[in-house]
Amino acid sequence: MSSPMDDYHMTLAEIAKELGVSRQTVSVIEKQALAKIKKQLGEWHDEQDNYSNSVIDNLSYVLGSNWIARL
Description:
The chain is mainly alpha-helical.
């Protein structure tokens, strides 16, 4: 299933013209935005790993260390 945004693409030049800035400025903004997204995803992934490890540790404590083998 595709979204309306799948077919909507703009070049750096088109974005720059729309915003009244240079293509280089658009490129810098794009790189900064992607870096922020990457950082946030990394932090989210780390939080998920920590949560998963905590759940596994708690299950191991409650059910015994070989609980996975019993599944």
